[in-house]
Amino acid sequence: MTKPDFSGRWRFDPSSCEADTPTPRFHELVIEQDGDRFRFVLVRGAGPDGEVQEYRLVIGEEHPPIPQGPATLHPWLEWKGADLQLSFVVRIEGEEGSWLVRLALGEGGVLLHAHEHFRGFGQDQDAIRTFVRT
């Protein structure tokens, strides 16, 4: 089965957000896909004050930990049918939690739905966030 192409520039649509948590820190997501290799760029703000985070992940491969403020993220990327699933073990000062993000294309590839589940550190949060291809 041919896997869908998630490549594109995606802008967060706050009007479609279903979340136990506030809106994401980033407002734009860029995905570059080459087979099972992915580059994710998260953009928050614009101009010189903007923040950009970049992650390069390959389906089914172990990746080095990603420092994220006081946390360390241990990523795993895999296909779940036609969806793309990012799983992170989150470690902060000896404690461990999990963050799962399942990406699904909708409306013929115009929408990107991010189904998020965060567990740990006294939190139990779920969200569905929608991004529009720009």
Strand content: over 45%
Note the gap between the termini: 27 Å
Low-pLDDT windows of residues = none
Global mean pLDDT: 91
Helix amount, in percent? under 10%
Global Rg: 15 Å
- From the helix content, strand content and strand pairing, which structural class follows? mainly beta
**Number of β-strand runs:** 11
Number of helices: 0
Shape: globular
SSE sequence, one letter per element: EEEEEEEEEEE
Largest sheet: 11 strands, antiparallel
Textual characterization of the structure:
- This protein has 134 residues and is mainly β.
- 0% of the residues lie in helices and 64% in strands.
- The protein has no helices and 11 strands.
- Strands 1, 2, 3, 4, 5, 6, 7, 8, 9, 10 and 11 form an 11-stranded antiparallel β-sheet that branches.
- It is globular.
- The relative contact order is 0.21.
